[in-house]
Amino acid sequence: MSTVKAALVLEDGRVFRGTAFGAEGQTLGEAVFCTAMTGYQETLTDPSYARQIVVATAPQIGNTGWNDEDDESGKIWVAGYAVRDPSRVSSNWRATTTLQGELDKQDVVGIAGIDTRAVVRHLRSRGSMKAGIFSGAALAADEELLARVNGQASMLGADLAEEVSTDAMYTIEPGGDHRFTVVAVDLGIKTNTPRMFAERGVRTHVVPSNTSLDDILALNPNGVFLSNGPGDPATQTGAIALTQGVLERGIPLFGICFGNQILGRALGRSTYKMKFGHRGINIPVIEEGTGRVSITAQNHGFALEGERGEVFDTPFGKAEVSHICANDGTVEGVRLIDGRAFSVQYHPEAAAGPHDAAYLFDRFAGLMEGA
């Protein structure tokens, strides 16, 4: 473990002192915690974590090193990483380097040796907040560090989807016979999503977040997919208008995570910033229509307004709150009652995480087949 001093500074003045982990320097972002006990590589490379400093609740991190197969995007997206006990040894047959080495290589500033239980209890009580990690030459008096932390922009009102989206369209071909073509709007998509489609005979055109409706229609899709992503959904006026255009044309639509919020707003619902959000791979969700409970992977700090079992009018027909969180009643899904559009707040592609919700890809395929 490094002997270089480091500090995690929260916007309310709380300071946690440890040692540098990964690159040395300064990073700013929103401090959040993730309850996943495994899958740190997938977490760190998930674009939904852009501009966030992730605090790991698992006490030891880095045991299995870092490999060339499990990235969920082309880079590490977290703003910073805070852990208690980084593993001194990486032990896995697929590992090509260490977590410490990869953080350093990608210039990701982290901190180790802090009481992450205390950090999580603080964030759970006070809510996610602005934060910064400082190490080495970036360290200064606490008052100066706090001023840097509080000088950054808030996550409320942050427009981040375009920052993490692809610059140009690319296509993932199906693994076997071609059954359907889906246009996936990249708001921060993870690599396992097109893989899940490919397993079901779906050709996936992944397009930038600012793609026009005409460009999507020109691809003659059987369905449209809205991906996960970071930031405040209220900023996504283009994606919301695009979704409304898809709904007007009756094209089957499926959204996850950020895409759930986009569909909800397209249906006239509002969104709000949660106190500390849902981040982990162990969150139970109830599907209202069936009573089915799925253990899900989630990463969101915003949510849709709504109540369990609520039915509401939209310009596209009646819709309903289809899923809720068993822990706190948060809206976890919405759908048009005629079935042609639905979304969930969690990650059915679940990498890393449980596979309870993978059936939703089959449901979408069935929807396209019946269209």
From TrEMBL:
User: What does the entry list as the binding residues for L-glutamine?
Assistant: 48, 229, 231, 258, 261, 299, 301-302
Superkingdom to which the source organism belongs: Bacteria
GO function terms (MF aspect): ATP binding; carbamoyl-phosphate synthase (glutamine-hydrolyzing) activity; glutaminase activity
Q: Report any one BP term from Gene Ontology.
A: L-arginine biosynthetic process
The protein's annotated catalytic reaction(s) are: L-glutamine + H2O = L-glutamate + NH4(+); hydrogencarbonate + L-glutamine + 2 ATP + H2O = carbamoyl phosphate + L-glutamate + 2 ADP + phosphate + 2 H(+)
Which PROSITE patterns does the record cross-reference, listed alphabetically? GATASE_TYPE_1
Matching Gene3D superfamilies: 3.40.50.880, Carbamoyl-phosphate synthase small subunit, N-terminal domain
Q: Which UniProt keywords apply?
A: Amino-acid biosynthesis, Arginine biosynthesis, ATP-binding, Glutamine amidotransferase, Ligase, Nucleotide-binding, Pyrimidine biosynthesis
User: EC number(s) per UniProt?
Assistant: 6.3.5.5
Q: Which residues form the active site?
A: 257, 347, 349
Q: Which residues form the Carbamoyl-phosphate synthase small subunit N-terminal domain?
A: 4-134
Instruction: Tell me yes or no: is Amino-acid biosynthesis among this UniProt entry's keywords.
Output: yes
Instruction: Tell whether Nucleotide-binding is among the UniProt keywords.
Output: yes
Pathway listed for it is:
Amino-acid biosynthesis; L-arginine biosynthesis; carbamoyl phosphate from bicarbonate: step 1/1; Pyrimidine metabolism; UMP biosynthesis via de novo pathway; (S)-dihydroorotate from bicarbonate: step 1/3
Q: Which residues form a coiled coil?
A: none
Region CPSase, residue ranges: 1-180
Task: Give the quaternary structure.
Answer: Composed of two chains; the small (or glutamine) chain promotes the hydrolysis of glutamine to ammonia, which is used by the large (or ammonia) chain to synthesize carbamoyl phosphate. Tetramer of heterodimers (alpha,beta)4.
What family, per the record? Belongs to the CarA family.
General function of this protein: Small subunit of the glutamine-dependent carbamoyl phosphate synthetase (CPSase). CPSase catalyzes the formation of carbamoyl phosphate from the ammonia moiety of glutamine, carbonate, and phosphate donated by ATP, constituting the first step of 2 biosynthetic pathways, one leading to arginine and/or urea and the other to pyrimidine nucleotides. The small subunit (glutamine amidotransferase) binds and cleaves glutamine to supply the large subunit with the substrate ammonia.
Q: What is this protein called?
A: Carbamoyl phosphate synthase small chain
This chain is encoded by the gene named carA
